[in-house]
Amino acid sequence: MSFISEFKAFAVRGNMVDMAVGIIIGAAFGKIVSSLVGDVIMPPLGVLIGGVDFSDLAIVLKEAVGDTPAVVLAYGKFIQSIIDFLIIAFAIFLAIKFINRLRRQEEAKPEAPPAPTKEETLLTEIRDLLKSRQDRL
Q1: Which of 40, 42, 55, 116 could serve as 120's disulfide partner, Cβ 3.0–4.6 Å?
Q2: CA distance 60 to 110
Q3: Residues 92/69, Cβ–Cβ less than 8 Å
Q4: If you average pLDDT over residues 102-118, what whole number do you get?
């Protein structure tokens, strides 16, 4: 098997395509949640705690000198990242919980019994004929 045909078999395998789709959707979902956190949740939270913007919280370890920039410990960005993570984790938890509920509902639906095979149908007809014949006697 050549290198190209091996790669083709690897790349078009079903689970690889599913994984690629999952990564793309995950990246888009991450952008949506980041916007939710930064644009919707954090502004009211900042107002509630006195107008504090977490991303601006920092400690200056060394002031800027000439062309040398200041050394800053930006712990506010770390707090913001933790909040982003918690919201993303909660959103994923809710999504998985919803999917699991749908799966349970799907599993709970009774399946229709399979149609009888030709042999079963023929045997049923023979049984009914024999029974009607016996009833005549």
Answers
A1: 116
A2: 65
A3: no
A4: 82
Distances (CA, A) of 43 to 20, 46, 50, 59, 93: 34, 5, 11, 22, 24
61 Cβ partners below 8 Å, 6+ apart? 70, 71, 72, 73
Q: How far apart are CA 16 and CA 19, in angstroms?
A: 5
Sign of the alpha-carbon dihedral angle for 100, 102, 105, 106? negative
Cα distance between residue 7 and residue 32, in whole Å:
34
The two structure tokens encoding residue 64 = 């800027």
Task: Record the tokens describing residue 97, joined without a space.
Answer: 């919980």
DSSP state letter for 74: -
Model pLDDT, residue 52: 62
* Inter-CA distances, 40 with 34, 47, 75, 119, Å: 10, 12, 21, 65
| pLDDT, mean of residues 107-131 | 86
